[in-house]
Amino acid sequence: MREVAARAGVSIATVSFVVNGTKAVSEPTRRAVTEAMQELGYRNNVVARALASKRTRIIALLFPADVQRLSRIALEIFMSAATRASELGYHLVLWPTGTSPDDVSDLVSGRLVDGVIVMEVRMDDSRISELAALDVPFVSIGRTAETRDLPFVDMDFERTVAEGIDHLQDLGHQRFGLLVEDLERGPLRGYGPTTRTERAFLQETAARGLDAAVARCAPTPVGGRAAAGELLAADPGITAVMILNDQAARGLISGLDAAGRRVPDDVSILSLAS
């Protein structure tokens, strides 16, 4: 570090602050140290730093390994989290795991990471309770049914559904359908966004005296086409469909068209995920 400090014109302590992220340093000073490190070919030894500071500066982003899908929103979350972590001097690692608490315990107890971000959260998610019991810094993207003392960020799906129905009612619609992804037989059974959206939809339509039907399908155009038939079979008079399964939207429109129902002339479609 002596050579880096001399080249940057700062103290050895300042170089240490920049390398380890242990103290705030002005941006010009940080830049000078970083440039000196690059000029001298200095490579920070992550392992040695972790041993010395007892911190790895690695954040694990947990994503279930048995979930065979990667949505546009998930990709945006990955990239945004990685960018922000880097700005704060951390490394973000995508960590595929199972959905059992043992997988989480193995990761945390090995002191491999300084913190955890949890994705694809179910209403009853044992990973969350395990992290809370292990007393490790974590945050979930999505929430469980019990939110007390839970650090999370999430959409307000209940309000989104209510405002969506408001908008469609203002357009004169009284007969509604909802299309969500079919997750009932897989590892994401009880997935928060789907469960909360369906529950809010049924509660809101019942409270307003509106006709309502729900269809579940695979997140594909083929699934959406089949769901169109299912919705029309449940209520041939449906004029508005809310959708939390954008990958199936094209198939939904195709299926409605095949049944002689044009979008948007005969049926309005409102995406809840965009």
Automatic annotation (TrEMBL):
<dbReference type="GO" id="GO:0000976">
    <property type="term" value="F:transcription cis-regulatory region binding"/>
</dbReference>
<dbReference type="InterPro" id="IPR028082">
    <property type="entry name" value="Peripla_BP_I"/>
</dbReference>
<keyword id="KW-0805">Transcription regulation</keyword>
<dbReference type="Pfam" id="PF13377">
    <property type="entry name" value="Peripla_BP_3"/>
</dbReference>
<dbReference type="InterPro" id="IPR046335">
    <property type="entry name" value="LacI/GalR-like_sensor"/>
</dbReference>
<keyword id="KW-0238">DNA-binding</keyword>
<dbReference type="GO" id="GO:0003700">
    <property type="term" value="F:DNA-binding transcription factor activity"/>
</dbReference>
<dbReference type="Pfam" id="PF00356">
    <property type="entry name" value="LacI"/>
</dbReference>
<protein>
    <submittedName>
        <fullName>LacI family transcriptional regulator</fullName>
    </submittedName>
</protein>
<keyword id="KW-0804">Transcription</keyword>
<dbReference type="InterPro" id="IPR000843">
    <property type="entry name" value="HTH_LacI"/>
</dbReference>
<dbReference type="InterPro" id="IPR010982">
    <property type="entry name" value="Lambda_DNA-bd_dom_sf"/>
</dbReference>
<feature type="domain" description="HTH lacI-type">
    <location>
        <begin position="1"/>
        <end position="53"/>
    </location>
</feature>
